[in-house]
Design brief:
Helix Hairpins; 13 helices; 70% helix; extended
């Protein structure tokens, strides 16, 4: 699908796949491509045998690649990565369509309906959106659609998805709890708790505790760090991504400088690497 021009094989293939679609750049064309890939007789063997569970991880991977392109401000990559993410949506919709459950048009119709319902101040006569009332209405509608009877109110933390990245989920869990008053009175209390958890981790390590206990203490420390991020209105995932990028950038500087000197990491000690690290920091600050 990456070829362009007048190559006869490409033209033949594309014509067979997207026949009937408005344009090659339409969503309908992508739906047609996926239908062809999933065809049991003439499709791609790999695509044919996949199911929702086997490709679930790719949704997460592609979403992260979208975020990476955004943070790098690479619009060409962003366009491509958004396409890869859209492909996952179409893939799942096609598998559901094969089972008579729903299709891509149903997915689009569902999100269009939801956006209109969630923005009565834009598409209706309301002065503003009452988010809590809208969410309660949506949950009631889902119960009706599924033929479910009225059930007990869900627990406060029930709608925080378990598959979220752990740091993000920690942030959202504590944000939810804070809404009902389960929160520290002030940020200084959170900072003190962070110090306390760090000390408990230090004591557990010094006492030679089992790895499971060390993991528990490390989890407590990270959980409090996520809460501190919430208090400071900092996205912990975004903050950590920036820290990762900074580490990669400065470490690459060390590596490049050693190569320029004809040296390997094994040829220098930690002090020499630290000196280059500090040099990278100074250069970054001078460029700000």
């Amino acid at each position: 699908m990456g070829k362009t021009g007048t190559d006869p094989e490409t033209t033949k293939a594309e014509g067979a796949v997207v026949k009937g679609a408005a344009t090659k750049g339409s969503a309908a064309a992508l739906v047609d491509v996926m239908r062809a890939l999933r065809d049991p007789q003439s499709g791609c063997p790999w695509d044919v045998v996949q199911d929702h569970a086997s490709i679930a991880k790719y949704c997460i991977e592609e979403a992260y690649e979208v975020v990476d392109a955004i943070e790098r401000e690479d619009m060409g990559d962003l366009r491509d990565e958004l396409g890869d993410l859209l492909l996952q949506v179409v893939f799942h919709a096609r598998m559901a369509e094969e089972r008579g459950q729903f299709d891509f048009d149903d997915v689009v119709a569902g999100i269009v309906t939801k956006m209109i319902r969630r923005h009565p101040h834009v598409f209706g006569d309301a002065d503003h959106a009452d988010w809590e009332a809208i969410k309660a209405e949506e949950k009631a509608l889902r119960r009706i659609e599924r033929g479910e009877e009225e059930v007990a109110a869900p627990r406060v933390l029930d709608d925080v998805p378990a598959p979220l990245p752990a740091l993000t989920r920690a942030y959202k869990l504590q944000k939810k709890a804070a809404r009902v008053g389960f929160d520290w009175p002030q940020i200084d209390d959170v900072l003190e708790k962070l110090v306390e958890e760090a000390q408990e981790l230090r004591e557990a390590r010094q006492a030679g505790e089992a790895q499971e206990r060390l993991e528990e203490e490390m989890g407590d420390l990270l959980f409090v760090a996520a809460n501190l991020s919430r208090w400071m209105k900092v996205d912990p995932e975004a903050a950590l991504r920036r820290a990762n990028a900074k580490f990669v950038r400065r470490f690459a500087y060390i590596e490049d400088q050693l190569r320029a000197q004809g040296k390997e990491f094994s040829d220098v000690d930690l002090a020499a690497m630290d000196a280059l690290w500090d040099e990278a920091k100074r250069l970054e600050k001078a460029a700000e």
